[in-house]
Design a protein that fits this description.
The chain has ten helices and 21 strands. The chain has helices at about 5-10, 30-45, 75-80, 85-110, 130-140, 170-180, 280-295, 335-355, 360-365, 375-390, and strands spanning about 20-30, 50, 65-70, 115-125, 145-150, 160-170, 185, 190-195, 195-200, 205-210, 230-240, 250, 260, 265-275, 300-310, 315-320, 325-330, 405-410, 415, 425, 430. It has about 450 residues and is α+β, with helices and mostly antiparallel strands. The longest helix is centred in the N-terminal third of the chain and has 24 residues, at about 85-110. The two termini are about 20 Å apart. Helix 2 (about 30-45) links the parallel strand 1 and strand 2 (about 50).
């Protein structure tokens, strides 16, 4: 199921790895985080190459709604409570700088990618106090944030929170432009990484530094990211003939919707769930909402996206582990991969080229989670344990990653792993990791 970005942009293909190579920096993953990291490293005169299992931008970058914002749900009040005022301000500063850097880069390089500055809104029907506390925290973090009652939405809200000077764009057109000068080897999956050596089907890459920008880092040890992250799926309809919205909107209630316009097309998102734990039919639910809100609209296409969720809602950006000082990682972006890809690129470039970053402690993968993250950890471990136990049966579909029982997703016709989020098509072909291999089964349709 292709997104509107896939349908309107064809990035020229690249060849696979031609054989064994040596380089200063190897980046695994040619999504936006990997490409931007390679781009800024190359500007620092680093010799860098990128390995991509499929094609550039074919993963989560093609499934985004492409909002570039510092407004990441109710993040600022949570950060203020869990990590304190200083860390909250660092988060706001890094993401606001990311928005401005997108704007500067697009202007300087004359990139035609439908970049638009727009306000971003959080809205609620039920959680007025939570939104009020978020407004106070956001302003304390230095972000102009204003509470409003009236919006342009086709339904009344109890309260909304407006962030000014946010943005959106066409992610694949942007990626095509910034990746044009980079050395990218497509259809070259990283099968394993040991020390300074990456093994692929076409040879090895030996690098002084290695960056894991492949959405979900696949090595089990060190890092233990499988115990510190899970994945969620969300769904999007692209509608023609719907409302033309000036702003971008996200509902903070459990049944809240995401809305933003890409030209004359409205992107309506919602009904997300933990990967492998589908209940109901999200596309039918979105279609029902669309018919109610926009009865004259027509669905052009629909697709899903998958997001890595951390225990404390902060991404892991920085040194992969204490045991491997030459490995780096960018993962756990939640629903905010566009902005945090730019944050990652600058933070990792600073670490690799200068040894430190002002944002290193905030995003460090080596950090201890806040006390409030313990219930999330308990739920994640319980979900994973159930999947692992069910996977012990010889009669079930198992994920090659760690052996969890796979669940059938009727909305997407895929097999999904409820433990760590690997996904496979109906014939067992790998769609998304952390699994590195497809499923080997004879009859897969339930």
């Amino acid at each position: 199921m292709k997104s509107i970005w896939n349908e309107s942009c064809r990035i020229p293909g690249r060849n696979p790895l031609p054989g064994n190579l040596d380089t200063e920096v190897a980046v695994i993953g040619a999504g936006l985080a990997g490409v931007l990291t390679a781009f800024y490293l190359a500007r620092e005169k680093k010799e860098v190459l990128v390995l991509e299992a499929r094609t550039a931008g074919s993963g989560q970058t093609s499934g985004t709604t492409a909002k570039i914002t510092s407004q990441h749900n109710l993040i600022y009040h949570k950060l203020l409570t869990d990590r304190g005022s200083r860390m909250m301000k660092l988060y706001a500063d890094s993401n606001e700088k990311a928005i401005r850097e997108y704007e500067r880069l697009i202007k300087d390089r004359v990139i035609s990618c439908q970049f638009e500055k727009k306000p971003a809104f959080l809205y609620t029907m039920k959680q007025q106090n939570a939104l009020h506390l978020e407004a106070i925290a956001a302003r304390q973090a230095g972000i102009p944030a204003f509470e409003v009652i009236e919006t342009e939405l086709p339904f009344p809200v109890k309260r909304a929170l407006r962030f000014t000077d946010q943005a959106c764009f066409h992610p694949l057109k942007f990626l095509e432009a910034v990746s044009a000068s980079l050395t990218i080897f497509e259809h070259t999956p990283a099968l394993s990484v040991k020390g300074h050596t990456i093994t692929t089907p076409y040879g090895t890459v030996t690098a002084q530094q290695i960056v894991f920008a492949c959405h979900y880092p696949f090595p089990l040890i060190p890092g233990y990211y499988f115990s510190r992250m899970y994945q969620e799926q969300s769904y999007v309809l692209a509608l023609s003939g719907a409302l033309d919205l000036e702003g971008m909107y996200l509902g903070i209630d459990p049944d809240g919707l995401s809305l933003r316009c890409a030209g004359k097309t409205l992107l309506l998102g919602g009904f997300g769930h933990r990967t492998g734990r589908l209940e109901g039919h999200p596309y039918k639910s979105l279609s029902s909402a669309a018919c109610s809100l926009f009865p004259q609209a027509r669905t052009i296409c629909h697709w899903s996206a998958q997001d890595c969720m951390t225990l404390d809602s902060l991404p892991y950006i920085g040194r992969f582990s204490r045991r491997n000082p030459h490995w780096y990682v960018a993962t756990g972006f939640g629903k905010w991969g566009m902005t945090l890809s730019m944050v990652s690129a600058h933070l990792l470039t600073d670490l690799i080229c200068r040894g430190s970053s002002p944002y290193e402690s905030l995003y460090s993968p080596l950090r201890f989670p806040a006390f409030s993250a313990l219930p999330v950890l308990a739920r994640h471990m319980a979900e994973s344990s159930v999947g692992l136990i069910k996977g012990l049966s010889p009669k079930v579909m198992r994920c090659p990653h760690m052996g969890c029982k796979l669940s059938w997703n009727a909305a997407e016709s895929t097999w999904d792993c409820p433990c760590h989020g690997s996904r496979f098509d109906s014939s067992g072909k790998l769609i998304a990791g952390p699994s590195q291999t497809s499923c080997r089964c004879h009859k897969l349709i339930p």
